[in-house]
Design goal:
Strand content: 15-25%
Oligomer: single chain
Keywords: Cell membrane, Cytoplasm, Cytoplasmic vesicle, Developmental protein, Endosome, GTP-binding, Hydrolase, Lipoprotein, Magnesium, Membrane, Metal-binding, Methylation, Nucleotide-binding, Phosphoprotein, Prenylation, Protein transport, Transport
Order of helices and strands: EHEEHEHHEHEHHEEEHH
Subunit structure: Interacts with SUFU.
Structural class: alpha/beta
Family: Belongs to the small GTPase superfamily. Rab family.
Radius of gyration: 17 Å
Shape: globular
Protein name: Ras-related protein Rab-23
GO cellular component, one term: phagocytic vesicle membrane
Number of strands: 9
Mean pLDDT: 74
CATH superfamily: P-loop containing nucleotide triphosphate hydrolases
């Protein structure tokens, strides 16, 4: 255990193209993982959406804060702000959308420009539609190798390998956090990505119920009252026993 009175929170951003008429599966992946549901009727994310789930990895309690970002250019300013403070990233493309695949390198550059060295995975979604695929396996594997990223093939519809994506990112963040703790408290507090260590009573060692982002910005981890009332079940159903 890191410490008896601590648990870990990990901010994960899901990134990829967003074009009218094309659904990559970022939103449905997060909904599937947090709420265990799948529907074809998701609307495009406008700006940023947020869900969370609590899991246990390597005997550590992990609070995953999953941020679904819009893929349209007009929301670049909003999504850039969302990247700051992220500690892990999921780059998503669809097996049926060639443009989403070709845009992956650009999306990775945008994320790295804001948060530098964090765990990132490459996810090919919609493996249930391989008959309609416009991307060869060799191409996807070559891109993952070129970018030096862990590569997952998922089907949100069939719930294939979705949990593995977030478990891997949680493990990688734990490794990094434990390394920082081993190097001393100053290493943790001087880290550029400061969301991460929380007291079990609910307060953050970096400020009660808040986390510091790059540039001194502060983001409140609790949803506002309107969002809580509207999506009460969404947040409650994300916690695992």
């Amino acid at each position: 255990m890191l410490e008896e009175d601590m648990k870990v929170a990990v901010k994960v951003v899901a990134v990829g193209n967003g074009v009218i008429g094309i659904i990559l599966g970022k939103s449905s992946m997060i909904q599937r993982y947090c709420k265990g549901i799948f529907t074809k009727d998701y609307e495009k994310t406008i700006g940023v959406d947020f869900l969370q789930r609590q899991i246990q990895v390597n005997n550590e309690d992990i609070r995953l804060m999953l941020w679904d970002t819009a893929g349209q250019d007009e929301f670049d300013a909003i999504t850039k702000a969302c990247y700051r403070g992220a500690q892990a990233c999921v780059l998503v493309f669809s097996t049926t959308d060639r443009e989403s695949f070709e845009a992956i390198s650009s999306w990775r550059e945008k994320v790295v420009a804001e948060v530098a060295d964090i765990p990132i995975v490459l996810v090919l979604n919609k493996t249930d539609l391989l008959d309609d695929s416009c991307i060869k396996n060799e191409e996807a594997e070559a891109l993952a190798k070129k970018l030096k990223l862990r590569f997952y093939r998922t089907s949100v519809k069939k719930d294939l390998h979705v949990s593995e994506v977030f478990k891997y990112l949680s493990e990688k963040h734990l490794q990094k956090l434990k390394q920082q703790i081993a190097e001393g408290p100053e290493s943790v507090h001087s880290s550029s990505n400061k969301i991460g260590v929380f007291s079990a009573s609910g307060g953050s060692h970096l400020g009660q119920n808040s986390s510091t982002l790059h540039g001194g910005d502060v983001i409140n981890l609790r949803p506002n009252k309107q969002r809580t009332k509207k999506n009460r079940n969404a947040f409650s159903s994300c916690s695992m026993p």
